[in-house]
Design goal:
The chain is an alpha/beta fold. The chain has 15 helices and eleven strands. It has a five-stranded parallel sheet. A two-stranded antiparallel sheet has the order 2-3. A two-stranded antiparallel sheet has the order 5-6. Keywords: Ligase.
């Protein structure tokens, strides 16, 4: 399978060339291996490679087969996850046209309207002609892709609610009057934000599976490496991309292998006990944190090539799945430095 960079007018900065920000890179990889983890919220000031990492990771994703003329890019091998139109064509004995495509990064603009996000129904046609005409939105284009929401904290809350609902259910439903249209909307959700520009409501933050805090690198050698890499990329992008191609292919192979292994990963009773021990010990409310923590730990085991989850997987996953779920004072900073507390539990 070819994982070479897409032929763009300007090559993208390689994921493998990103210096530091290990938790952010791990959280992104976990979510493309297992979108059921529920997405990742990346918090940090501008200039910390948030958007660069998202776009670069898409270049390493395995190509996917899709129904060529379907607006939702349905998987031709998965009838259960298809849209109603593709299922009807299959039931009628039609052969679906298949295309092989790269995974795309679909961006949600801050100024997007509800119709632009969800799609819109032509009510005049529905009432006058008895035909339901649906104009797909961003959630349709995002099916089986990466949905990237920059400055998610600046979106209207009802739009954030809608995209989080679609991320959780894997389906987008648009209802107007007595008419309803649904379509598959399974995507890897990545939200980025600068906390200095305002926080998300805690109820919304909690619905992101993972959350990481990124900042400027404090290690002098790493900062020098960032400058040197950027200058080398600007001087000769094609050569720089080629120099990091082997490392990128290794990451791509790890993602593909983890996806294949993930369904076989098992978590024993002692692992479930450790999950609950951590969530209770850290004061996490509700059960979403327990489930996300377990899914994250299972994905980390798959990335490590194992079929059994270890206690160390759970403890490492807690650093990604729990900081934004800890009880805190309103507007207080999230506690991302919880490693010592985890060791004491």
């Amino acid at each position: 399978m070819n994982h070479a960079p897409t032929q763009n007018a300007q090559p993208l900065y390689p994921f493998a060339a990103l210096v530091g920000q290990d938790q952010m890179k791990l959280a992104l990889i976990i979510n493309v291996v297992n979108p059921r983890v529920g997405g990742v919220l990346i918090r940090g000031e501008k200039g910390t490679a948030k958007s660069t990492a998202v776009r670069a990771l898409a270049e390493l994703m395995p190509q996917q087969k899709a129904v060529a003329d379907c607006p939702y890019a349905c998987d031709p091998r998965d009838a259960a996850a298809m849209c109603a139109a593709c299922r009807a064509r299959l039931s009628a004995g039609q052969e679906l046209p298949v295309a092989t495509r790269r995974v795309r990064v679909v961006e949600l603009p801050v100024g997007a309207t509800e119709d632009r996000l969800l799609g819109s129904l032509d009510m005049e046609s529905a009432i006058g002609e008895g035909q339901t005409r649906f104009q797909p939105g961003i959630l349709a284009a995002a099916n089986r892709q990466i949905l990237y929401v920059d400055e998610v904290n600046l979106l209207d809350d009802h739009l954030v609610d809608a995209l989080l609902d679609a991320a959780a259910m894997g389906v987008n439903t648009v209802e107007r009057e007595s008419i309803s249209v649904s379509h598959p909307s399974r995507f890897t959700l990545v939200g980025t934000m600068n906390p200095e520009e305002g926080e998300l409501r805690p109820q919304l933050t909690d619905r992101f599976g993972l959350c990481v805090q990124v900042g400027g690198l404090s290690d002098p050698a790493q900062r020098v490496a960032v400058i040197a890499n950027r200058l080398a990329f600007e001087k000769d992008p094609a050569r720089f991309v080629k120099a990091h191609a082997a490392a990128g292919r290794a990451i791509a192979r790890a993602i593909a292998a983890a996806r294949r292994l993930l369904p076989k990963v098992q978590a024993g009773p002692e692992i479930l006990d450790r999950v609950v021990q951590l969530t209770l010990g850290l004061g996490v409310d509700g059960h979403r944190g327990d489930l996300t923590l377990l899914k994250c730990a299972m994905t980390m085991a798959a990335l490590d090539g194992r079929r059994a989850v270890l206690r160390s997987d759970v403890d490492a996953a807690a650093l990604l799945a729990l900081p934004h779920r800890l009880r805190r004072r309103p507007l207080a900073e999230m506690d991302f430095d919880i490693a010592a507390r985890i060791r004491r539990i």
